[in-house]
Write a structure and sequence with these properties.
Number of helices: 7
CATH architecture: Orthogonal Bundle
Strand content: under 5%
CATH superfamily: Uncharacterized conserved protein DUF2267
CATH topology: Globin-like
Radius of gyration: 15 Å
Mean pLDDT: 92
CATH class: Mainly Alpha
Helix content: 55-70%
Number of strands: 0
Order of helices and strands: HHHHHHH
Low-confidence stretches: none
Number of domains: 1
């Protein structure tokens, strides 16, 4: 039993480290708001990817963030064809309005994409970026996923 607890403790620690890093990037003290922001961007991104690519991204997320990421997912309804940058940011904005109405969806998206860029393999980031319209490229850190 102790080994299971140890594994779960490490998983929680890693997920909390991601949230703390994102909180710092956004300049927020509210961990619940940070989790809502992360969820909003992850869901918008996940729904824009093919199911296979969405699962490949999930494989690199901390354990408890995988649950957040997959919550409510309907793979048969993806990928959603959001070609317009504003339509994507609107997908992010919708859940933010309910919990953090003052949040800027573009700022939040940039911060989450930076977090992903810092923790997900370069090859996976390149695969994701190649699936997205070129006009969304400025939402990622400079040279992100480009090898």
């Amino acid at each position: 039993m102790a080994s299971t607890s140890h594994v779960w403790d490490r998983a929680l620690h890693r997920g909390n480290a991601w949230l703390q890093e994102l909180s710092g990037e956004l300049g927020w003290d509210d961990r619940d708001a940070t989790l809502l922001a992360l969820r909003a961007v992850l869901h918008a991104l996940r729904d824009r990817l093919t199911p296979n690519e969405a699962v490949q991204l999930a494989a690199q997320l901390p354990l408890f963030l995988k649950g957040v990421y997959f919550d409510g997912w309907r793979p048969s309804a993806t990928p959603v064809k959001l070609r317009d940058r504003e339509a994507f940011l609107d997908q992010v904005r919708r859940p933010l309005i309910r919990g953090i109405p003052e949040a800027d969806s573009e700022e939040v998206t940039r911060a989450v994409f930076k977090l992903l860029d810092d923790h997900v393999s370069g090859g996976e980031i390149a695969d994701i970026r190649n699936m997205l319209p070129a006009e969304w490229g400025d939402l990622w850190p400079a040279a992100s996923g480009l090898t």
